[in-house]
UniProtKB/TrEMBL annotation:
<dbReference type="GO" id="GO:0001682">
    <property type="term" value="P:tRNA 5'-leader removal"/>
</dbReference>
<comment type="subunit">
    <text>Consists of a catalytic RNA component (M1 or rnpB) and a protein subunit.</text>
</comment>
<keyword id="KW-0540">Nuclease</keyword>
<dbReference type="GO" id="GO:0042781">
    <property type="term" value="F:3'-tRNA processing endoribonuclease activity"/>
</dbReference>
<protein>
    <recommendedName>
        <fullName>Ribonuclease P protein component</fullName>
        <ecNumber>3.1.26.5</ecNumber>
    </recommendedName>
</protein>
<dbReference type="Pfam" id="PF00825">
    <property type="entry name" value="Ribonuclease_P"/>
</dbReference>
<dbReference type="GO" id="GO:0004526">
    <property type="term" value="F:ribonuclease P activity"/>
</dbReference>
<dbReference type="InterPro" id="IPR020539">
    <property type="entry name" value="RNase_P_CS"/>
</dbReference>
<keyword id="KW-0255">Endonuclease</keyword>
<keyword id="KW-0819">tRNA processing</keyword>
<keyword id="KW-0694">RNA-binding</keyword>
<keyword id="KW-0378">Hydrolase</keyword>
<dbReference type="InterPro" id="IPR000100">
    <property type="entry name" value="RNase_P"/>
</dbReference>
<comment type="function">
    <text>RNaseP catalyzes the removal of the 5'-leader sequence from pre-tRNA to produce the mature 5'-terminus. It can also cleave other RNA substrates such as 4.5S RNA. The protein component plays an auxiliary but essential role in vivo by binding to the 5'-leader sequence and broadening the substrate specificity of the ribozyme.</text>
</comment>
<dbReference type="InterPro" id="IPR014721">
    <property type="entry name" value="Ribsml_uS5_D2-typ_fold_subgr"/>
</dbReference>
<dbReference type="GO" id="GO:0030677">
    <property type="term" value="C:ribonuclease P complex"/>
</dbReference>
<dbReference type="GO" id="GO:0000049">
    <property type="term" value="F:tRNA binding"/>
</dbReference>
């Protein structure tokens, strides 16, 4: 398994962040918020999962913000397989994220992803 995200797996443009905020589903996980948007299937484009992380200056020092961003990127990287192929994820850190153990953060992230199945994200009902 790769140990880092490629440039194509990261959200960089403000328009991409805005699209996820406007069109995606949002789940509050306590120490962070997850926003997920499934991308329509474009012809000729490879399936890719992308992440954007946000840690505002209200969190505190740059050390705390960077730690929070590293934790969120690692949650995404190690658990990508549970997400649909074409999806954009934005994770927003809260001040308390650095006080949680990685295992607790992973449990909360996995629960959020399970609640956001592909059909639930698009507004439909899950198929039994």
């Amino acid at each position: 398994m790769r140990q880092r995200l490629t440039g194509r797996e990261r959200l960089n443009r403000q328009i991409d962040f805005a699209a996820v905020k406007q069109l995606g589903k949002k789940i509050d996980c306590g120490p962070f918020v997850v926003q997920i948007q499934v991308i329509p299937d474009p012809i000729g484009h490879p399936p890719i999962r992308r992440i954007g992380v946000i840690a505002s200056k209200r969190m505190g020092s740059a050390v705390r913000r960077n730690r929070a961003k590293r934790l969120m990127r690692e949650l995404f990287r190690t658990n990508q397989e549970i997400l649909p192929q074409r999806v954009d994820v934005v994770m927003i850190a809260r001040r308390t994220i650095v006080n949680f153990a990685y295992e607790e953060l992973q449990i909360r992230y996995l629960q959020a992803c399970q609640r956001l199945t592909p059909l639930n994200i698009s507004g439909g009902e899950p198929v039994e």
